[in-house]
Amino acid sequence: MSGTMHTGPIVRVRNLVRRFTVKGVLNGLDLDIAPGEFIALLGRSGSGKSTLLRAIADLDHEATGSGDLFVPERISVVFQDSRLLPWRRLIDNVILGLRGSDARERGLKALAEVGLAGRETAWPHELSGGEQQRVALARSLVRDPELLLADEPFGALDALTRIKMHGLVKRLVSIHNPAVLLVTHDVDEAIALADRIIVLDQGVIVADLPNAHHDDDIEQLEHTAATRRLLLRHLGVGHDGRALAPEAVDAAH
Amino acid sequence: MASTAELLHPPFPKHPGPLPGLGYHRPRPVLETMPTVPPLQRGKYRLGLPRAWTYGWLLGPAMLLAYWAVGSTSGFIDSRILPAPWVAVTTGIDLLQDGRLHHNVLVSALRAAQGLFFGATLGVAVAFLSGLSLVGGYLFDSVIQLKRAIPTLALIPFFILWFGVGETMKVTMIGVFVFLPIYVHTHNALRGIDLRFVELAETMRISYLEYLRHVVLPGALPGIMLGLRFGVMAAWVSLVVVEQINTTSGIGYMINLARNYAQSDVMLVGLLLYAVLGLASDFAVRLVERKVLSWRRTLGQ
Ligand SMILES: Nc1ncnc2c1ncn2[C@@H]1O[C@H](COP(=O)(O)OP(=O)(O)OP(=O)(O)O)[C@@H](O)[C@H]1O
Ligand SMILES: [Mg+2]
């Protein structure tokens, strides 16, 4: 695995600044991601989560800015929409641009991993939204990424499908062991999946919490409740669901 | 969302219970208190098109033919203005028997095919240059838009000046007629490719050639096919124009000659030939289109 080779972080972001026209979206952001680490990125709408993700993925052609970015070579991105090419069958979508004589074989294996064995010749439009997103997951993991970037990948799915996807993602990540940066709006999703949860506000990281998983049920429940309350406060939501005053949010940071 | 069962059998109205001060009433039978709701008509509401009819596309032409036939028999359509449909058929058979028809059709078809080939190849090639590169766009697109504003017919004198009055001029002329719609539609389709897919391709670090093959070409294919349909039609239509200039063969020549002798039946055969050839080639392009765009799900299918 990649983790055994280098000891340092696999992603290093230093003093990252990104702005659109004049508005600063990222204002000197620092972030390290260790190999195999699962990070959930929370933040209010418009706080710059997608902007950070796109900067790391080298997709921010229209933004200006500065800062240092060290990223691994193999990066896969999962978007909120599955982005399957409608004119390619599932298997061809999965192995798009993949080289080597065993590409097809690997693609079939990846489809089987997400529970879609036997559907390889289907067209994307023949699949449900959840199934399409599973194909997108297979397409990103078949490339054996060192870093998996996901921008609200389950945002368009229903709650039940989302929970099933969480299980699937956990299993696949433990097999392929990439570092993951997952953007999400869902505090519970972050707690369920991540090793570490960071909160973005005003273009910098304002909270960076470890998120250990406890074997003991009671401990896990207590941890979940505490983390949840803390995260919500950072996101500007009080314990009774009311919006917090800006000063209170700043105090939480 | 209500389930189908709920829609078909709305929940029974609640019994109001004993009224205060009046003691307990026996509830009336439920069926009596049920509102009379007409049974829902399922599957009637639809905004898209219903299932296609086989040969449904023949309806319009058949009506037109019927109107024409009835008009001709009743004398409502003067035969000097428009000969009856069966006159066109008998004249066509006559022309076929003396060999003039297939010779003319063959010559015309060859011209159209040559023009189509050059026009389409160049149209697609230039559209790719101007659609996929910034500099290409700046170089070609505005020039071609400029040309669009000039009627192609107005170019004929220049083309005669440059290419003479022979076959070269005619094929070039047809090529110009074909080039424009194919260029415009292809360029439009290329510039209209969904950026989300371009972004996806970028995250996969695929080569430019793979990008062309997997994203650009299939993404632009609907537009290219549409352009091709216009181009094929343009090839036939332009024959009418170019075959009026110094020709001794072709459908256009046949029509012209007939006009000089006021043979309206031969003119009519020529017109119908254009229609049949145009429709047949359009049909062929659509067959190809259906084949290569089989992944699409649209209103038209
Ligand atoms: N291409 C763009 N051009 C101009 N402004 C942009 C562009 N992309 C993002 N922005 C602006 O940058 C800010 C941050 O956007 P970003 O998409 O990163 O937010 P986000 O945290 O991902 O929000 P959400 O949770 O709603 O997806 C927003 O105010 C947005 O208006
Ligand atoms: Mg976003």
Automatic annotation (TrEMBL), chain B:
Record-annotated ABC transmembrane type-1 domain positions: 101-285
Membrane topology: Multi-pass membrane protein
UniProtKB keywords: Cell membrane, Membrane, Transmembrane, Transmembrane helix, Transport
Subcellular localization, as worded in the UniProt entry: Cell membrane
GO cellular component: plasma membrane
Stored SUPFAM superfamilies: MetI-like
Keyword Secreted: no
Region (Disordered): 1-20
Source organism, top-level taxon: Bacteria
Pfam family, one: BPD_transp_1
Transmembrane segments: 52-70, 116-140, 149-165, 171-190, 211-237, 266-288
Bias kind Pro residues: ranges: 10-19
GO biological process, one term: transmembrane transport
Protein family per UniProt: Belongs to the binding-protein-dependent transport system permease family.
Protein known as: Sulfonate transport system permease protein
Organism of derivation: Novosphingobium chloroacetimidivorans
Organism taxonomic ancestry: Bacteria, Pseudomonadati, Pseudomonadota, Alphaproteobacteria, Sphingomonadales
